[in-house]
Design brief:
It contains 6 helices and 3 strands, in the order E-H-E-H-H-H-H-H-E. It is mainly α. Strand 1 (8-13), helix 1 and strand 2 (55-61) form a beta-alpha-beta unit.
Length: 183
């Protein structure tokens, strides 16, 4: 089987299937976590490729290793691993939005209190320098209290979403196991 020319190929050469997986993980290959170096290599290459379109992951093995039962389980194992990672990152994104909503409620409450306090200071102190200083300072504190939720909802979620989508694309990748020298 060859890679579709319109897909983007990530090629990895290993001496054995076990080299792809975390050796400390007691589960069978289909359930194991990918080795950290192997994951970093695959994800790093995936980030370098275009942001759209499918991937093909080509695992090159020595011929005796490519014929073993474990090699036939590599496509399923990689798919399951990257599905799991996408799910984990998706939960991180949900947690970030939950934190953002709480921070926004707190920030808006602080902002409302600061505006009320600023108005009270203006009423009591009039147009004195100290009154204006305190009044403006309270408004600034109110805005600063909203800095984090604004940062979360405008910027922080984007890289997490991209990472989740990358893992989803890797989970959907066509995985081909080839013996070294095979075309």
């Amino acid at each position: 089987m060859t890679a579709n020319p319109q897909t983007q190929a990530i090629e990895i050469r290993v001496e054995g299937v076990a080299q792809l997986f975390n050796t400390l993980d007691p589960f069978p290959f289909a359930e194991r976590d990918l080795d950290g170096d192997a994951e970093e290599y695959i994800v790093g290459w995936a980030r370098e490729l275009a942001h759209r379109g499918p991937f093909t992951i080509v695992v090159h093995l020595p011929a005796p290793e490519a014929d073993k039962e474990a090699a036939r389980g590599v496509p399923r194992a990689l798919s399951r691993f990257f599905e799991y990672r996408a799910d984990v990152v998706g939960r991180e994104l949900n947690e970030l939005f939950r934190i953002g909503r709480i921070a926004l409620m707190v920030g808006l409450a602080v902002f409302g209190l600061c505006l009320a306090a600023s108005h009270a200071v203006d009423t009591m102190a009039g147009q004195t320098y100290l009154g204006s200083f305190i009044s403006e300072s309270l408004i600034i504190v109110g805005w600063v209290a909203n800095w984090r939720p604004i940062e979360i909802f405008l910027y922080d979620w984007v890289p997490i979403l991209r990472r989740r989508n990358l893992y989803r694309r890797l989970a959907a990748a066509n995985v081909i196991v080839k013996a070294n020298g095979e075309r």
